[in-house]
Amino acid sequence: MNSARDPEAEIRARLQEHWAASERGDVDAEHAIYAADAILDYPQSGERFRGRSRIQAQRGGHPAERHFTIRRILGGGDVWVSECVITYDGVPTYSLSVMEITDGLVTHETQYFADPFPAPPSRAALADPIPVRDQ
Predict the structure, then answer these.
(1) Which DSSP string corresponds to 10-37?
(2) Which CATH number covers residue 68?
(3) What is the pLDDT of residues 57-73, one digit of tens each?
(4) What domain range is 103 assigned to?
């Protein structure tokens, strides 16, 4: 039996725990994945937050009721991507989180957000609906 560590399985498990902690509102567990000097970028607003404590503080005051649904986590080595649906007061927003990881901790995260939009009728004959389990 091979008992060697699997670093990628460990990172995936830590990312899953990060998102599960986000869902249950456990801010300490949610932010345990970040290095003390981590950087978080929100390109759409042009904001950069430096340090785990500032990342945690800016998330701590969010007035909306939030829920996190993870669609998938992909990655390897030092770059991992989480595709999520974050629901704010019942309204879904699609999010893509790109995390750079060093020594098991996130050193740089970039989060992109997009609101859902209706498909134009002109594409109806070309597209299939995404199955609910994949949304």
Answers:
(1) HHHHHHHHHHHHHHHT-HHHHHTTEEEE
(2) 3.10.450.50
(3) 998 877 889 999 999 99
(4) 7-115
